[in-house]
Amino acid sequence: MIAYFTLAQTREERMLPWHKMDEQGTLKRVLYDEIIPSPQPWLEAVDPKHTHLVNVWSEQGGKGKWLGASWVYFVFGTAAQIHFVIDRSHFQDAPTLGIQTCDFWFHWLRPCMPSCLWGWTPKPYKDVLRMIQIWGFKIIGTIPGGCPMPTVEKRLRCKDAVISVLTYDNLMAAKAALEVR
User: Which residues contact 149 (CB under 8 A, 6 or more apart)?
Assistant: First the structure.
């Protein structure tokens, strides 16, 4: 599968991942740091003043099936923090979608090519941790209690956070291993 990327420039384009996650019941899983996810904090998080968001499609020009979304922002120097959401009906394509998405970001962010992409994943998300390692991310450590994951009953609940890093060389090795275009 070849993925195509469109930069989300309008409010509607930035809200599309929100609506898809809401339809699929994955809002709380992806936006785990909110007790009850709501649109306004989402729009603030993906504000184009500091965040680049792309929607991922099965055809060029934002056509075909919506496959997912990804957003990045720079927190530390040239290391870009990355986030993903993959449409549940295309989760079987996650190995290639993730690699293509990371490859897109490394090239789209030129001329300030990021030194790496890095992620912050709740340790209980074992399926996500397995997937990002297929994409070439290396687990570099755990921050005890680093992920706020509040619930109505436990507003201060936190889980351990796993920190992972993807260099371009590791992405290319993962891409070659899966023979992704």
Answer: 32, 33, 122, 157, 158, 159
pLDDT, tens digit (0-9, with 9 covering 90-100), for 21-56: 999 999 888 888 888 888 999 999 999 999 999 999
> Taking the complete model, does pTM exceed 0.70, yes or no?
yes
Distance of CA 127 to the CA centre of its chain: 14
How far apart are alpha carbons 29 and 111 in whole angstroms? 34
Host H or E run for residue 161: strand 158-166
* Whether 157 contacts 149, CB under 8 Å: yes
Count of C-beta atoms within a 10 Å radius of residue 177: 12
Q: What is the pLDDT of residues 7-21, one digit of tens each?
A: 999 999 999 999 999
**β-bridge partners, 147:** 159
